[in-house]
Design a protein that fits this description.
Elements (H helix, E strand, L loop, with lengths): L5 H14 L4 E6 L16 E5 L6 E4 L5 E7 L2 E7 L4 E6 L5 E3 L40
Antiparallel strand pairs: 1-2, 1-6, 3-4, 4-5, 6-7
Length: 139
């Protein structure tokens, strides 16, 4: 079985957005195993995250999970999610990007119908804090 192409496409759309002066956004399925996002911003099981360099800190698109630090309503929050939870990566200004349509099956439960135990998500590493990033909710 080959590696998923999803992480590569997410990074490519992010780089394309930044290189062209667009604001990169990622649409995430909030109920996917391993997703840690502020639940008060989840709508219909999804959250759209502004991942522009001016909105967040310490973005790591190379790992699994993807993670970064942001502020939501002025409160710091370490966001993390597996690439398989990403439903779309796109530019806010024109909507161009890639839509995956559905989540990938979680690696741990591929072939298994069991769901993960709530509260077992590992804590993301805490990067050093510098500056004051902002994150805007996009509706």
């Amino acid at each position: 079985m080959s590696a998923s192409r999803r992480p590569y496409l997410i990074r490519a759309i992010y780089d394309w957005c930044c290189d062209n002066g667009h604001t990169p956004h990622i649409l995430v399925a909030a109920d996917y195993p391993g997703v840690i996002v502020p639940r008060e911003f989840v709508h219909e099981g999804r959250i759209t995250l502004n991942v522009s360099p001016v909105a967040i800190q310490n973005l790591d698109l190379t790992g699994d999970p993807i993670w970064f630090s942001a502020r939501f309503n002025g409160r710091p929050f370490d966001v993390q999610f597996p690439p398989g939870a990403v439903l779309a990566a796109f530019a806010r200004e024109n909507g161009e990007g890639v839509m995956f349509g559905e989540v990938e099956p979680p690696a741990e439960s591929a072939g298994s119908a069991s769901s993960p135990t709530p509260g077992t998500d590992p804590e993301p590493p805490r990067p050093p804090r510098t500056g004051r990033p902002t994150l805007r909710v996009v509706k």
